Amino acid sequence: MIKSIKSTFEKTTVILDNHYYEECTFKDCIIVYAGTSEINLVGCKFFDCQWRLDGAASNTIQFLRSMYKDMGEFGKQTVEAKFENIKK
């Protein structure tokens, strides 16, 4: 795992997968998560950043969208239950 502590990232693309960020500041960055490995964001601050999902993470969102839209009431209830569980 790559570690960054008390670093500032500005106007760059930042990969979250396989990274540990502690007390870092991100300004006007593109934050990318692909779902390939663990990430850690501890006490970080984000200003005017864009968030992007790639790879497996993007595929998961597409799957949930399809499930919600195309699988009737069962799909909607399943996806909504997942999000309620995330909120806890």
Give your account of this protein's structure.
There is one protein chain. The protein is an alpha/beta fold and 88 residues long. It is 36% helix and 36% strand. It is built from 2 helices and 9 strands, in the order E-E-E-E-E-E-E-E-E-H-H. The strands form 3 sheets. The chain has a 3-stranded parallel β-sheet, with no helix packed on it. The longest helix is centred in the C-terminal third of the chain and has 16 residues, at 55-70. The model has no long low-confidence stretch (mean pLDDT 95).
Binned strand content: 35-45%
Strand order of the largest sheet: 1-4-7
The total of beta strands comes to 9
Radius of gyration from CA coordinates: 16 Å
Instruction: Count every helix, treating DSSP H or I runs of 4 or more residues as helices.
Output: 2
- Please identify the oligomeric state: single chain
Distance between the terminal alpha carbons, to the nearest Å? 28 Å
Overall pLDDT score: 95
| Percent in helix | 25-40%
Gross morphology? elongated
Regions with little confidence, pLDDT below 50 for 5+ residues: none
Q: Mind describing the biggest β-sheet?
A: 3 strands, parallel
Order of helices and strands: EEEEEEEEEHH
**Structural category:** alpha/beta
